[in-house]
Amino acid sequence: MRVAVLGLGLIGGSVALALAEAGHDVLGFDTDPATRASAAAHFPVTADPSELQDTDLAVVAAPYRHLAAVAAETLRGYPGLVTDVSSVKAEPARLFAQHRFVGGHPMAGKETAGFASAEPGLFQDRKWVLCLEADTELAEWTTLAGLWTSIGAHVVPATAADHDRAAARISHLEHLVAAALVRVADEPLARTLAAGSFRDGTRVAASPTALFTGMVAGNRAELMAALEDLGTELDSARQDLDAYTDRPNPISEWFDGARASRAAWPPEPDATQRIPLTKAALVELGAAGGWVEAVESEVALARRPRVKSTP
């Protein structure tokens, strides 16, 4: 397949490297001369949008704030299939409505950015959301699912709305909390004493600000709802702490509930199963937290989280 990758930062660069390594004909596009110079050692690059027209697939890995310009200008009249890697899915679907578009989001990354941080194995065994809406062409979805599983990703079917709700709770909220924890601990003694729990809880606070801002702004409604839920949880803990002298058990139970849930993550996969490549089967798989690991002619090789039996 001839694939154009627009934006050669960490994610786009890793996509391009993985696809080139898998034998695809990759054309990289980036507006930054230094990035193009670095990438040119691995695959052809261009800064001319007209050269993108003769490709089968365009993978948009530009920053969120540039997606509107990519849709309206860079890919104007583009005849091929378009997908993206944005961490928000509802808004890109609207922006690329005039294209043959299937939204995507690889759940992979680093705190570092740029092509220098890209690596072809970044997506190995990582989840890759691939949006499956009522009007999605199943053949196009299947083409992309086959492509991403071929570079090692596990494809999760989901609607844009369901993705954005989940992403607000397992990614976007964590960025806000990490930044808040850094700000709360911003004093000399606290920073000297900070160790493992501070490091792990604040890792994503080192992410590029532009990426972080676009992510939370693009999913603002779902993030606000997630913040409400977080506030409810913290208020519950505050009340339990306030009453600890008289009632020591509730705060322990609060921690126990979270510990049990965290200990069960990530979910243990059940045995591989073959499911038909139909929208109904794929939607049901995604809703159950399942994923596709390979695509065959009429079936997908899939797994679901193992349901633990109760005594």
TrEMBL record:
Protein name, entry field: Prephenate dehydrogenase
Organism domain of life: Bacteria
Prephenate/arogenate dehydrogenase domain span: 1-273
UniProt family annotation: Belongs to the prephenate/arogenate dehydrogenase family.
Coiled-coil regions, chain positions: 220-247
Lineage per the UniProt record: Bacteria, Bacillati, Actinomycetota, Actinomycetes, Glycomycetales
Gene3D superfamilies according to UniProt: 6-phosphogluconate dehydrogenase C-terminal like domain, NAD(P)-binding Rossmann-like Domain
PANTHER family in UniProt: PREPHENATE DEHYDROGENASE, PREPHENATE DEHYDROGENASE [NADP(+)]
Keyword vocabulary terms for this entry: Coiled coil, Oxidoreductase, Signal
Secretion signal, residue range per the UniProt entry: 1-20
Keyword Transferase listed: no
Alphabetical list of SUPFAM superfamilies matching this protein: 6-phosphogluconate dehydrogenase C-terminal domain-like, NAD(P)-binding Rossmann-fold domains
